[in-house]
Amino acid sequence: MKTLAALVTFALTLVAPHVNAAACGDLVESDIRLTADLVNCPGPALEVRWQSDLVIDLNGFRVASAAGVEATIRIHNSRNIHLIGGTVGGDRTGVTVTGSNQVHLEDLDVEGTDLGVYLWSVHDSDISFSRFTNNRMPIVIDDEGLANGNAVTSNHFNDNRGGVLIKGSHRNRVEGNSFRRNTGAVSIAGASGNLVERNGMFDGNHAVSISGREPSGDGSHSNQIRGNKMYDNLYGVIIRAPKSDRSLSKYNEITKNAFRGGSSGVEVLGPKAYGTQISENGFYAIDGSAITDQGTRTIIQFNHCSGGC
Q1: Rounded Cα gap, residues 264 and 290, in angstroms
Q2: C-alpha to C-alpha distance for 63 and 40, rounded to whole angstroms
Q3: How much of the chain is helix, strand and coil, in % rounded to 5?
Q4: Which of 115, 156, 165, 302 could form a Cys-Cys staple with 93, CB 3.0–4.6 A?
């Protein structure tokens, strides 16, 4: 029996991952699991460069760099990185991810940052089952068409100044999140082919804003805002045409959403907002206009409005 137990123990050592603890400023090159808070770090608390297939388990602890440090956690040019299970703070950026793909941020509490999570030139990555509280801007997905195919799903955003900003980035998905008491929930600027679906957006300034990207003037095209609940926001969905004379915002779709309360439901502002479709939405107890259309060739059909559309 002792021989059998020894063999089992030896086999487990072969298959079990080697997990290291961490200290402020560590350059992470293998799986790590925190055993204590990492706070007041004079530079980035943790950094990953040119790595693949590793796990950073915060293990319920808090990570925060000292005041003025650009980012608490940095992930650069890496693939299949998992950051899970703890609190991220710092007065600048919580997590910065650049030039990477398949980065997975899950079960995090991101609190009190200027910018919670910043994705630049990142694709096929996701942020899920996390909580964002008292941040100026919780999430930015950025970069002139190279940050594509990312997902923000099943998160809670409470009492932030912003929500999710998709800027110059395409084919991203924002789905199944809860936004409460944020200045804005989702903003799309100069970005196309994004899906905003089945979110709850409550008690904010605006639920969804679609606009051009300045100063480039790029328009936002073929975004789908579908199946969301937008209750008691000052504004529901606002589509602003780009300022540039060179471009339009075209073929955005606002469908199957429920709007309740607030001063307006959907506003399409400016003739360069072209071919917007507003269909199969429900508008209830809107103080002002359910639909304001100043666009070009807007399609408005099959909506239900209490008190008239």
Answers
A1: 5
A2: 9
A3: 5, 50, 45
A4: 115
CA distances for 185 relative to 38, 40, 203, angstroms: 30, 30, 10
101 in Cβ contact with 125 (< 8 Å):
yes
pLDDT in tens, 93-134: 999 999 999 999 999 999 999 999 999 999 999 999 999 999
156 in Cβ contact with 131 (< 8 Å): yes
Contacts of 81 (CB under 8 A, 6+ apart): 48, 51, 52, 54, 55, 56, 75, 100, 102, 103, 104
Domain 19-305 belongs to what topology? Pectate Lyase C-like (2.160.20)
Task: Indicate left, alpha or beta for 85 from its phi (over 0: left) and psi (-120 to 50: alpha).
Answer: left
**φ/ψ (deg, to 5) at 260:** -145, 130
User: What is d(CA 227, CA 244) in angstroms, rounded to the nearest whole number?
Assistant: 31
This prediction's pTM: 0.91
In angstroms, what is the C-alpha Rg of the chain?
A: 22
